[in-house]
């Protein structure tokens, strides 16, 4: 059901239920792969992935916390909160650090795993002290991820975050994302202009957009694999849609030159106006459920 394995330098957990296999790295509590028996994988993992301590693994579901992306591109309250962080890496502080596996509850057709990030007492400057971070993973017919932050301190905490999910697709030229129509988005590749999405999103080049005011469900229509992959989120109204396309791919680590054709990131997030403020004692969760449905014949 749940087996501890080592990949390179990393401790990983292989989870099997009656119909699916899930692989998670303890470092960063990073889901690495998820596949249901007899189906194409839902989550993409680079063929060039390397498993090194302190280094992100390319693919899966990196946890971006306590800020998303470039700290300097975050709301002032988030920048202010972590201004002391040195270094201040892209996507925050915890995706390359060790988490703890607190609890496993494995049944034949469902598994629950609870990962916790226990902050170092003498964490580097800028840590959001007294915030408990948990990733709860529930696998049944779907994969459910819930990232919860509990402010155990006496001061309010601001943060931005994302579950940076890399989806496997048959061919980026052929898929489209449904459910975005009418939403506003920030076009980070054109001076962070705010625009409105008309119709479904198709991919014709590098795409790196922050969608705002999203509905709970968006889907990836993948005709070649005869399926729709659904994302149902809660605690989030924003998501980042990213494909590096050709040129940016060449600048990415652990990324084969043609890999851009087979992956698509839709990152369930709390960013920009959707960033999180935790009052003293408050707990909030960012959650997403992922599953695929065959296209009706
Ligand atoms: O989520 C989109 C993004 O911010 C892209 O701009 C790209 O930087 C991607 O994340 C991957 O970032 P990483 O630090 O994991 O290589």
TrEMBL record:
Its EC number is 5.1.3.15. It comes from the Bacteria. It holds the Pfam family Aldose_epim. It catalyses: alpha-D-glucose 6-phosphate = beta-D-glucose 6-phosphate. Keywords: Isomerase. Belongs to the glucose-6-phosphate 1-epimerase family. This is Putative glucose-6-phosphate 1-epimerase.
């Amino acid at each position: 059901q749940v087996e501890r394995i080592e990949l390179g330098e990393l401790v990983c957990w292989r989870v099997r239920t009656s119909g699916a296999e899930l692989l998670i790295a303890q470092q960063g509590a990073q889901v690495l792969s998820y596949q249901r028996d007899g189906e194409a994988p839902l989550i993409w993992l680079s063929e060039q992935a390397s498993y090194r301590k302190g280094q992100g693994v390319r693919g899966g579901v990196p946890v971006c916390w306590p800020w998303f992306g470039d700290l300097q591109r975050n709301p002032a309250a988030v920048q202010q909160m972590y201004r002391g962080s040195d270094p201040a890496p892209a996507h925050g502080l915890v995706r390359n650090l060790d988490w703890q596996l607190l609890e496993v509850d494995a049944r034949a057709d469902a598994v629950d795993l609870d990962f916790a990030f226990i902050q170092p007492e003498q964490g580097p400057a800028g840590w959001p002290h007294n915030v408990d971070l948990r990733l709860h993973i529930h696998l049944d017919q779907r994969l459910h991820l819930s990232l919860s932050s509990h402010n155990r301190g006496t001061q309010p905490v601001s943060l931005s975050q994302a579950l940076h999910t890399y989806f496997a697709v048959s061919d980026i030229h052929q898929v489209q994302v449904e459910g975005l129509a009418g939403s506003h988005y920030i076009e980070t590749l054109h001076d962070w202009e705010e625009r409105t999405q008309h119709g479904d999103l198709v991919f014709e080049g590098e795409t790196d957009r922050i969608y705002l005011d999203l509905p709970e469900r968006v889907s990836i229509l993948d005709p070649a694999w005869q399926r729709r992959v659904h994302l149902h989120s809660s605690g989030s109204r924003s998501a980042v849609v990213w494909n590096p396309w050709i040129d940016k791919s060449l600048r990415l680590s652990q990324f084969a030159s043609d890999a851009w054709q087979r992956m698509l990131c839709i990152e369930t997030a709390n960013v920009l106006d959707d960033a999180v403020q935790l009052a003293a004692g408050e707990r909030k969760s960012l959650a997403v459920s992922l599953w695929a449905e065959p296209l009706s014949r």
